[in-house]
Amino acid sequence: MIILFFQLQKEHSTPLYEQLYIGIKDAITNNQLAVGSRLPSKRELAEFFNISQTTVELAYSQLLAEGYIMSKPRIGYFVEEIDSLPYRKNNVMDFNFKNVAKQTEYKIDFSSAKIDEDAFPFTTWRKYAKDVLDKPFKHLLQTGERQGELALRVEISNYLHQSRGIECQPEQIVIGSGTEQLLPMILKILDDDFLLAFENPGYSPIPRHQLSQLAIPISVDTDGIVVEQLQKTKANVVYITPSHQFPTGAVLSANRRTQLLNWAAKAPNRFIIEDDYDSEFRYIGKPIPALRGLDQNDCVIYLSTFTKSLMPSLRVAYFVLPPTLIKRYQEHFNYYSSTVPRFEQHILAKFMEDGHFAKHLNRMRKIYRKKHDKCIEIFSNYYPQISISGDAAGTNILIAFLHDQSELALQQIALQHNINILPLSNYYLTEQSYSKRTFLLGFGHLHLHEIEQQIHELMAIWNIFRKLVN
Ligand SMILES: Cc1ncc(COP(=O)(O)O)c(C=O)c1O
């Protein structure tokens, strides 16, 4: 008879039959029990462990069901042959965790991607979340519409009409979990042999090393993307941020807008991808209407996100297709489910339907304006040698100054003091030489009353001369 080298613990919270099952299973998988060897009968095992036969029976039936043992009627139970699973050493301990980007908490964070955390309308959001996460909405447990929930697409089309000068039907809108997820979808809808042009400097939802092989960089000046440069390339698709160029903050001038639309209309299959990120908060002049609103030839694919207007963690963005591309979208994505949970989509739809999104934008515009004005005031009062640009909209400004250290060295000095601030060179696809050190100073996340001291702290560690003001 085979011998089992384990004990059962009668006081343990794991039931006895389960302890027995685990013990025998482990003995089989560790080759302590040879294939074909006969297991003790139920009675023998029950006597051996001083347990009931029912307990043994339960353990044996589990082992039978999982194929560890077989039963020969009236003879007994035998160890089955099981294919051994390939065993790969778990290399977790050897893994270099230093290579995994961790989210760092900085003492001062001038990141342009962060939002104000104190002004979020938690109470209202919670109310809608509570309403939606309840029995009357139980149908939301099932898979939803591929393009995103109709209720949310209706609200987005209303918002685009009222605030961005865009006329579109909910059928043209596709909702997804972020610009990063949606841009590859858009590119798939376009012809396979598209050639992409990107703003340089610019935002890249595609990793930079891939982008530099994939895309043609086009310069940006104070009027936005230099269309003359684009015209000289073979690109047929261009990705732009016309309302608030990222990261320079330039607004695409009226002349360039017309030039760009004409460029797109001149040949078939030319498209403009308009990323309207960060266009909601404008401090100087009137809101800039979206380029899509001027498009008469169905050349503009409009892309936007709730990342800045609500919260980056919501992961809701969308694109608006020209009617001519809807069929292509359906052909390519009729198998693809929406990447945003249905419950989140309905919470957002209700929030918008009841006017809270518009209210939130107005409130945030005032809050960000105060922070924006504070930054401008500090630089013009104390650091007149620093030039400021990109300050008409968004939640960051650009500061530029002469310095004998490089942008990278200055960034490192800031990091050594636990201050996060990104240089403009971070956003260039190609090597650039420009005389002034330029940084994006994001203020969205900062507290109004701390901004002055935080800017002084940064300037002090960079040894930037501070003018004395009485
Ligand atoms: C121009 C631009 N578009 C989009 C995004 C991010 O969008 P999402 O959070 O929807 O992926 C960013 C973030 O920095 C951006 O700079």
Features:
elongated; 3 domains; Aminotransferase_I/II_large; 470 residues; 4-stranded antiparallel β-sheet; alpha/beta; binds pyridoxal-5'-phosphate; 16 strands; Aspartate Aminotransferase, domain 2; PLP-dependent aminotransferase family protein; Arc Repressor Mutant, subunit A; PyrdxlP-dep_Trfase; transferase; DNA-binding; Aspartate Aminotransferase, domain 1; 8-stranded mixed β-sheet
User: How many domain modules?
Assistant: 3
Form type: elongated
CATH superfamily of the largest domain: Type I PLP-dependent aspartate aminotransferase-like (Major domain)
Number of strands: 16
- CATH topology name of the largest domain, in short, is Aspartate Aminotransferase, domain 2
Overall helicity: 25-40%
Rg on CA atoms, Å:
31 Å
Percent of residues in beta strands? 5-15%
Q: N-to-C SSE series? A: HHHEEEHHEHEHEEHEHEEEHHHEEHEEEH
Any low-confidence stretches, pLDDT <50, length ≥5? Answer: none
For the largest beta-sheet, the strand count, sense and barrel status come to: 8 strands, mixed
The distinct bound ligands, ions and cofactors come out as: pyridoxal-5'-phosphate
CATH architecture of the largest domain: 3-Layer(aba) Sandwich
Helix count equals 14
Order of strands in the sheet with most strands: 4-11-10-9-8-5-6-7
Separation of termini? 97 Å
Assigned CATH class of the largest domain: Alpha Beta
Sheet/helix structural class: alpha/beta
Mean pLDDT: 92
Family: In the C-terminal section; belongs to the class-I pyridoxal-phosphate-dependent aminotransferase family.
GO molecular function: transaminase activity
Protein name: PLP-dependent aminotransferase family protein
Cofactor: pyridoxal 5'-phosphate
